Amino acid sequence: MGIVLGPNRYGKAETRLVRVDRDGDAHQIKDLNVGVSLAGDMTDVHLTGDNAAVLPTDTQKNTVFALARKHGVDTAEGFGLLLARHFVASQPTIRRACVTVEEYAWDRVPVTGHSFVRRGQEVRTARVFHEEGRTHVVSGLRDLTVLNTTGSEFRGYIQDEFTTLPEAGDRVLATEVRAEWRHRDADGYWDASYAEVRRVLLETFAGTYSRSLQQTLYAMGRRVLEERPELCEIRLVMPNKHHFAVDLEPFGMDNPNEVFLAADRPYGLIEGTVLRDDAPAAEEVWR
Ligand SMILES: O=c1[nH]c(=O)c2[nH]c(=O)[nH]c2[nH]1
C-alpha cells in the first residue's frame, strides 16, 4: 500500500490591517482582514522537514503590511491581486496564491475629518423593571464601533519594573461602545431619546481630545446627561481596540502612523458609570 501527500497549502490567516491615509485633514481608512494561502513545491517540507521552499507565514504577514505601506490600499480586489501576484512572482517555489480580503466599512462622524463609525453594526437594547409603585427603564446600545485616527495620546502613566509600553503622543483610538442609560420616568419618547443619545455619544467620542479612554468615557457619559434631562444615569463599557503601528524599518520603510495591526486580544477594558447626584437608586434594573 502506497501513501502519498495529497493537496496541501499553507498561509497566514486573518492579518488585521488598518491603513490610514493622512493626506490633508480628511483622513481615509481601510480596514481589512487578509488571508493568504500559498501552494507550490511543498513536498519536501511535509515529507522530510526541509524548509528550503517555504516562505514563512510570518513573512507573508509582514508582506501584507509592507505592500500596504508601499502601494496603499485602494480596493479589496486590487490589494488581493497585488499580494497574490507578488508571492507567485517573487518566489520560484510558490506556484499558486489565494488571497481573501474582508473589508469592513466605516462611515464618517462629521464632527472631525478623523472620526469614523463602523457601518450598520450596533444593537439597540432595553431593560425594564416593574413592581407595584416602582418602574425603571434602561435603554442602551452595544457594538457601536468608533475610531479616531488622531487626537488621542496616552502618557504619564505609572512606570514600574514590568512596564514596556512606549508613551504615545498620537495614536489611533478605537472602541466598541456598550452603553446603557436610565430614564427618570417610565413615559418617554423612546425612539427620539435613543437617536439623540447615540448622536451625542458619537459626537463626543469624535470631538474629545483624548488623554486616555477613561477620560473619553467620562466625557461621553457626562455630555449625555448634560444634553438629555430625561436621563439620570449612564453606564459605559468600552474595550480599547488596540491599533499598533507596525515597525516597517526592517524593510527599509518608515511608518508615519499609516499602517496598523488591529489586535483583537488581549484588550484593555474600560468601564464606568456617570450619574446625577440626585439619581434615585435602582439596582434592581441592572441585575
Ligand atoms: O486609554 C488608555 N487607558 C489605559 O488605562 C491604558 N492602558 C494601556 O496599556 N493603554 C491604555 N490606554
From TrEMBL:
The active site is at K12 (charge relay system), T57 (charge relay system), H242 (charge relay system). Pathway: Purine metabolism; urate degradation; (S)-allantoin from urate: step 1/3. Keywords: Oxidoreductase, Purine metabolism. GO terms for molecular function: urate oxidase activity. InterPro entries: Uricase (IPR002042). Urate binds at T57, D58, F154, R171, Q214, N240. Its EC number is 1.7.3.3. One of its GO terms (biological process) is purine nucleobase metabolic process. 5-hydroxyisourate binds at T57, F154, R171, Q214, N240. The keyword Transport does not apply. O2 binds at T57, N240. It is an enzyme of class 1 (oxidoreductase). It comes from the Bacteria. NCBIfam families: urate_oxi. This is Uricase. It comes from Thermomonospora umbrina.
